[in-house]
Amino acid sequence: MKRRNFLKLGAAVSALPLIPSSMLAADKLTALKKNGEILTAARWGILKASVKNGKIVKSAPWKITSKIPNTLQNTMADLVYNTRIKAPMVRKSYLADPDNPKPELRGLDEWVEVKYEDAIKLVARELKKTREQKGASSVFAGSYGWQSTGNVHVSRTLLHRFMNLTGGFTGVTGDYSTGAAQVIMPYVTGSNQVYEQQTSWPVVLENSKVVVFWGLNPISTLRVAWTSSDEQGFKYFEQLKNSDKEIIIIDPIKTVSGKYFEGKARWITPRPNTDVAMMLGMAQHLYSQGKYDKEFLQNYTVGFEKFVPYLTGQSDGVAKTPEWASEICGISADVIKELAIKFYENRTMIMAGWGIQRAHHGEQAHWMIVTLCAMLGQIGLAGGGFGFSYHYANGGAPTCAGRVIGGMNAASVGVVKDGKFLGLAQDQKQGGEAAQAWLVNTAKVAFPLARI
To answer: What is the CATH number of domain 181-401?
Structure first.
């Protein structure tokens, strides 16, 4: 596309929000389809919906990318007609007396359907009252969780945008999925890791000799993605199964993935939450045998000299030997030694899941995986090292790092004093106060910055 035409198209698209909704009515653009098939997409893939008499009767994948089935793709009719909440609902006792909400009835009270207009008024009333009585920080609007597929109408982002521009709120830091790992990894590797592109699957399939699944269940979790899945992840695990790679699954549970790779993979079952001990046993064995990459550690890492005294027991009197680890994790010392040497002598990709860090001191699991891989010296080599997101959103597929359409953001609040812009609000409290002042008093105090 020529640059001039691209700019024209961009201008036209940017004007869409200004067009009255009546001009975009269905009968103006296209008639609703009463019978036949409709192509759509969801977090579980590109779907083909069958419509009869204006009603969805079934759904199926638009295109089969692998022989691994995704049962979520057949649920559209149930999701639309059976599980969707059709109207706002309010607790009966609260509706009767909003100023006396009876918190003891939560979970026991009846629910009453109300009109959207009434629900909006109730929410606005409570927000205003709470902020006036308790301050902006008393409103919790984290709303962490699932969301709509599209980037423009992500419910959580829109909620935060609304809250930012009307007075501020208390949110959350991080998320449930990788709460510990995403905090520690920037200090260990300089970046988040858990939400980044992995070593490309074609590189793994061509160069890795050993592939380790450490606490992940990709055949289950690859059914969904961040936005609309292009379903590339399944086909690579299918190719892995049909390859000559040695596959090792380290997981206390025989998951869906364990069953899928049965007969092809070796399954090792440590006690839950003992992964770090097992890795320490491997690391100590490698160190005692001199089978670790001294040059890599010297040139590309810092802090190994502080780790060794703990590993050998010099600092606390407890050497982290395979025998020591075996008592904790339940895997024999011989197996721990064997795995350590196997990883060292073969190009090994350790694919780790998020579940192993959802525990007390959970950050240590991913930290120790990086430490073990640094000792192996294969980080940066084709098919070697580690990856923390092969099991979700098609991690490792070359397409998963592709550009996506931008959407709404949560907005920021700028602080102004004496007509001079001082910068963005430094925290939710300051932002809430500034936004509230802007709304109530004058634009000279603060203004919203809405980057779209």
So the answer is: 3.40.228.10
